[in-house]
Structures are given as C-alpha cells and as structure tokens.
Amino acid sequence: MISKHVHYEAAHDNYGALARYIADAGHDGEKCLASWCAGCTADDDYDLAIIEAQAVQSMNTRSRKEKTYHLLVSFRPEDEARLTPEAFKAIEERFATALGFSDHQRHCGIHKNTNNIHMHISYNMVHPERLTRREPFRDYTARDKLCRELEREYGLTVDNGREQRKESALTPKAATIEAQTGQESFESYAKRHKEKILGALASATHWQDLHEALKAHGLGIKPHGNGLVVTDLHGQHTAKASTVDRSLSAKRLQERFG
Fold first, then answer.
1. pTM for this one?
2. CA dist 11 to 14, 15, 154, 226, Å?
3. What are the pLDDT digits (tens) for 155-183?
4. Sequence-distant (≥ 6) Cβ neighbours of residue 250 within 8 angstroms
5. How far is CA 64 from CA 57, 128, 154, in A?
6. Helices 85-99 and 139-154: angle between axes, nearest 10 degrees
7. CA–CA separation, 98 and 81 (whole Å)
C-alpha cells in the first residue's frame, strides 16, 4: 500500500468539493464503493457533516494556509479480497491517529478504477473545539511507517516506502498523476520493468537490437527534445529514459551505439 498527501494551495482549498467528489467519484470509469464521515456531530449524515466541517474551518480566521488535508491510500489489486469495509474504516482511523487528526472531522471514500482500489480521505485540519489548525510534522515519515505496519497486520503486498533508493523515486509529474487518479503512472510501470529493459540493453549491439528487444516487452525508445524517452508501443505514454535508469540516457547510449 502507498499513501500520498495531495497538496492544495490555500486559494484552491475546498473541503466541500473534495468531500462531494469522494462520495460520488466524478470522473469516467471511477466507482465509489463506499463513503462515510467521522468525527462529526452530524453522525452518519454525510452532507450535513460537510456543512459542519466548513463551518469549523470558517471560524479559524487566523490561518492563511490550506485547511484541508487530502490523503490518498492506494492498494494492490491482489489485496482487494483481504480488505473488508470494516478494514478500510480501521485503516483510516490508524492514519487519523498517526497524523494527529483522530479528533478532527473527516470524509472518507473507497474508490475503484479498473483494478486499482484506493481510499480518499478529506481531513479538516482545524480542530472542531480549539479551532486551531494542525499541520502534521514530517507526515511522510509517519505515513510510510504506518503503511509497513498495516501491510504486516493485514497480510498485504509490501510496497517500497521512503527507504527505497533515490533513483527509484517518481518525478513530481508522475507522482501527481498517481496521487490524483490512484492509478499507476507509465513511469512507475517502466521502472517496475527496469530489469527487462536493462536485460534488453545488455544483449544489444546496435540500435536496432535495442528496439527489437524492447518491442518484445511492449516498449520502445525514441528521441524527445535533447534526450530520449521510453514509450509504450502506441506511443501514447512516455517516461524520460534517464529517470528509468541512468544507463538509458542519450549520452550513454550514443557513446555505445553511435
């Protein structure tokens, strides 16, 4: 499982819009399997709880920063059978505790797009009684630590956390795509198949060898700007070749193949 904080600038912060999106999964192919709210005096009245959370946010007039924390938690397709509605709610409560939002209002939903199941949570960063804004300190560390704990407890597939090597980290664009859609980016796909790509490179003696070897894995490589990109066979998705592996940079491949 992977957790991401989807950042918003204060000017684009809209708790109500996010909570309503969580409940109905507005874009094509996206299904909302369940939605609920927590920490609200409105109990199970989802829409009334939105009004309640917005009212609390409006009473904090000191902060000029965003007041909504959007958390996305993604799960592997093979783990879906292990995740009951009760498990999702328990997992959300663990994240709320880890982030210091256990006493805060939040709206939650389980979404599914093709085989990608994920959970969206909108946390009101303003405490409902103290009216102070909470911004979790080093939240990425707390979230990654919790992900590893939950993977062990629920028997879920282990994903790389912050301890992964720097070169395997996603570019900001790819990370944003995954955070907003809950789907794997092409960059992640290419990095996941890096061993096959490097195997194709190792056996190639000229450019055509490399093209044929990559084609066998449903991939290609082509010039783009001053460098190279790895593509799918239809050319609809690309990733900068050197972000997949440094040995795929234009300079190194030109030194090797001319």
1. 0.66
2. 9, 12, 38, 36
3. 999 886 654 444 456 676 676 666 555 56
4. 223, 226, 227, 228, 241, 242
5. 11, 18, 39
6. 150
7. 25
For 218-246, write each residue's pLDDT tens digit. Answer: 888 888 888 898 888 777 788 888 888 88
Identify which of 214, 192, 217 has the alpha carbon closest to the alpha carbon of residue 203: 214
73 contacts 146 by C-beta, under 8 angstroms: no
State the 10-residue block means of pLDDT for the chain, 258 residues long.
Answer: 88 93 73 94 94 98 95 92 95 98 97 85 98 93 94 90 52 64 71 78 85 83 87 82 85 86
Token pair in block for residue 101: 């939002």
Residue position matching structure tokens 């309503």: 20
